[in-house]
Amino acid sequence: MHLNRNDEDILAGELGAVKQKAMEILVALGDIYGAERLVPIESAQIAGVSYKTIGDAGLEYLTDLTGSVTVPTMLNPMGMDRYKWRQMGIDELFVEKQLAIIRKYEMLGIDAQCTCTPYYVNAPRKGSHLSWSESSAVSYANSVLGARTNREGGPSALAAALVGKTPEYGYHLDKNRVPDITIKTDFPLQGADFGALGYVVGKIVHSRVPQFSFVTQPNDDELKALGAGMAATGAVALYYSERRAKPSETLELSRSDLDIYSSSEPDAVVLGCPHCSRSELTEIARLLDGHTVKRPLWICTSRFVADRCRSLITRIEETGANVICDTCMIVSPAFEKRRLMVNSGKALEYGPSLCNSHTVMGTTADCINIACNA
User: Fold this and answer.
1) Global pTM?
2) pLDDT above 90 for 283
3) Has residue 354 been placed in a domain?
4) Is residue 263 part of a domain?
């Protein structure tokens, strides 16, 4: 892989041991995947934030790091809402460790916006190169915003943030951004249906690049749900919501293929995986109007979004629902070993495996109805 003079200086340790190690990681990745060069990135987003997932080993690793990131960098959700952790039932030792992790990231110059929807905070430009970690954020950046990023691990995203570059391979290259299968649905879809479609299609296409033929064109929230479901079940990092090419393979799905909804009685309902947008919070508030929550209802969003619609949050919480920020059901111990109902294909996939919870899926309206009619 070609390195310019500044890259070589970093690799030689002339800008410090931390950046040298970061460059070693990037060069190793580039060599493994046959990258010809490094490309500058516009931003980074780092996974490996929750104490639940990285533990003491991760905290120790972060403690040894010094220096500062060179591009705007945000974090994936942590294991709790930084202000409502008592309400979530998080113990104080976990809180202490979690806040230590956040402080360490902040010392590296990282914006501690802990969200799986960093594009609501700072949307990347079309065609820009990124180094993002969270699977649904990667999908949205590539597929909806037209940016370019591979799904990075936490260490490689942090390395890219420290150096400001990433190896040019995978979805950074035009040749790898070509659709290779068409998914056809000749029936209308709405809301959570797109998350269900993503859940099903991911299992079929795995890491291929699908393009869709829809009867009704999805909005941005529905595209987010579609990509999140495919990223969870199939590691799909790029898709197209309209025909772009003529792949040799076409797969036609029927309505019955998406029959994954359940009316099973949960002990809690969780919405916001990925984090809710303002429009999704508006819809939830509308569905809750005139009702009182009788079963725990947790709604996850980013603090950035919540701070910009406080009256909407108040309206939701007046019904007895809980809006939490900085975290999500997947990375928080608060949702382990429970019976959960979600409106997300991503949450449906990860609930059993990462939360050890019995998880079922319904539409957003189904979820609100269950929460209000225990």
Assistant:
1) 0.96
2) yes
3) yes
4) no
